[in-house]
What we know:
Layout (H helix, E strand, L loop, with lengths): L4 E4 L6 E9 L3 H8 E2 L12 E8 L4 E11 L10 E8 L1 H13 L3 E2 L4 H8 L5 H12 L3 H11 L2 H25 L3 H37 L1 E6 L6 H9 L17 E7 L2 E7 L9 H16 L2 E7 L6 H10 L4 E6 L9 H7 L4 E4 L8 H13 L14 H22 L4 H19 L5 H9 L6
Parallel strand pairs: 1-7, 8-10, 8-11, 11-12, 12-13
Antiparallel strand pairs: 1-2, 2-6, 3-4, 4-5, 5-6, 9-10
Helix pairs in contact: 4-5, 5-7, 6-7, 6-14, 7-13, 13-14
Amino acid sequence: MEDTIAAISTALGEGGIGIVRISGQESFDILNKIFVRENSKNEFIDRHMYYGNIVNPENMETIDEVLSVYMKAPNTYTCEDVVEINCHGSIISQKRILDLVLNSGARLAEPGEFTKRAFLNGRLDLSQAEAVIDLIKAKTDKGFNVAINHLQGGFSSVVAEIREELLNVLAQITVNIDYPDEDIEQVLYKEIEKKLKEVNIEIKELIDSAEIGRIFNEGIRVAIVGKPNVGKSSLMNSILGENRVIVTSVPGTTRDTIEESVNIGGIPIILTDTAGIRKSENEIEKHGIERSKEKFNNADLGILVLDSSRMLDEEDVNIIEKINDRKVLIVINKIDLELKLEEKHVKNMIPEAKIIRTSMKDMSGLKDVKKAIEEMFLGGKIKQQESHTVNNSRHKDLLIKAKLSIDDGTELIKKNEALEIVEIDINNAYKLLGEILGETIEDDIIDRVFSTFCLGK
Ligand SMILES: Nc1nc2c(ncn2[C@@H]2O[C@H](COP(=O)(O)OP(=O)(O)OP(=O)(O)O)[C@@H](O)[C@H]2O)c(=O)[nH]1
Ligand SMILES: [Mg+2]
């Protein structure tokens, strides 16, 4: 925390502008060593931007034309003195300026170190700091909205409120331990049981929201599977709206899995076309089929394509049998041809699956497929509040542990156990929720959190 740190804060590539950021006590001195303004003394008004050159003081060589700003502690991103040098967005310029800054007394920042300082200096709690990286990495509008809400403290205040409720319970328990009153003890036990139940409902809602949070962050993995020639690649192309995959009338055309991203209803879908699954002696095809199965097993949703112009055969049945309780959508394709497949049989085999009839010849049913994908994951839930959406597995794990601890406490209460023992579980839950905010947490966990950050943030 004593060191002055520096890094390139913009993405390393070509761009209009690149920013080198410095934070710490020596920021301003370092700027003064390397920044030269024409026709003026280097007087800096806090938070004003100045035009000038970055010059190597050793040989007076000009490195780049820049705008520099000096922001005085404590009202800065890190709560320390911060300097930002806006140079041309060239990798060379940014690297040369950074080198000069490092030679002038700063050390290279670790990934996430600026934000870590903001956390350690108390400007952000840990969940807010984590929201910074979620914000930067957000791939969807919805993921971004959740992250910005969390950064502004929406999620933190939800967690803080739950902790407050636990703290009230702990206070009641402490009073009763210190001044036992047998008259009210039974009432108190009932009251605490009720309160813990309410708290656990709130925690469970948060845990349940994590599935949506994950989808907002990472997208949904959808694998298109089926026997050869049913129209899997045609469906893939239609959903993507381009001829990405080769389609021919020869069964076994697709030999490998092909992955593409597509946005449906604001959610990123990682769509995979796979090789048709059948018994094969061909070495290449066999490998492809193995991959199809693997993709299907790892997908959040499988789209099983069947050919309506052929009777259901052993190959279809073999695949259907492997579906079990997976999330699956059944697409009965080629309905423009004469109908041979009996939908009834399919329904009997997987009664809970949604069935959509399509033709990739005239695109009928395509919209229904897209709508079904969206609804299967977000049916109604999409309106959940951003502040109540958990988007981070660390938070989810802590919420699960806190809930279990409260469950244990509730069991003890029901058994009329001594309040001293109940208190341990509730206190534990209180602490676990505190870890989300970074209030009660070990250094190595903090380090792990920030190690996932990008350089310069
Ligand atoms: N009539 C009709 N033909 C279709 C339809 N969908 C696909 N086809 C045709 O069926 C054949 C196979 O289509 P593909 O999309 O390559 O089938 P696939 O399931 O990817 O096949 P493999 O890659 O071999 O597993 C092609 O000749 C397509 O033009 C449809 O809805 N109606
Ligand atoms: Mg194919």
